[in-house]
């Protein structure tokens, strides 16, 4: 039986894309349009006896539109990679209280990663649990690689080739060995009949945080509460259950915490 007195910290990260000048360093654009290559490729598509200038012009326009589309798609997905994305916020929930660490600059991102790693050292070294949803595939890796960027030591998160046993991914618990199974946090909350549901879309977190930090922080706080509720169903724990009813309105922005 699980020791009910062990620390059980819920966590989640929210990310955004790096600035455009950084993204361009990692973007591989399409090759320039070649009229000669186009003529050779589509020679049979032109009517006999015609030059096919309209056809070539149309293909050039299609190519130019595709160049724009590919760049826009790359930018839209930048937040999903630790190479092209950055950590905007790290949410932590323990004993019914949320603490939200936020970052607007590289220096602040480094600071919140260092804060998180220090907490992980304390929790994991003492047999506690750092619990999240889909963390094995996203959060763990993102934090690990962004920490390396800033020359921080993220190896507390690892045990050789594997993640530390104290990093519990609730999605892995749900899968019960079936790695093909995927379900969103919102859907598993609906299925299990827990109280809270999503109140926004994480894909827009960085933009929302830039314009309305309070709304973004409330969104992340709600995700932490959902993670806690789902976790208490998947892995019951008497000590954590006592705090599960606390509302997510206890969010404390990192900046305010630092200033205090």
Task: Give a written overview of the molecule.
The protein has 260 residues and is α/β, with parallel strands linked by helices. It folds into two domains: 8-18 and 82-259, Nucleotidyltransferase, domain 5, CATH 3.30.420; 22-78. Helices cover 48% and strands 14% of the residues. The protein has eleven helices and seven strands. A hairpin with a 2-residue loop joins strand 5 (158-159) and strand 6. Helix 7 packs across helix 9 (213-234) and helix 8 (205-211) packs across helix 9 (213-234). Residues 240-250 and 254-260 have low confidence and may be disordered.
Write the layout of secondary structure elements.
Layout: E1 8-17, H1 20-26, H2 35-41, H3 53-76, E2 85-94, E3 97-102, H4 106-125, E4 129-132, H5 135-149, E5 158-159, E6 162-163, E7 167-169, H6 170-175, H7 185-192, H8 205-211, H9 213-234, H10 238-241, H11 254-259
Parallel strand pairs: 1-4, 4-7
Antiparallel strand pairs: 1-2, 2-3, 5-6
Helix pairs in contact: 7-9, 8-9
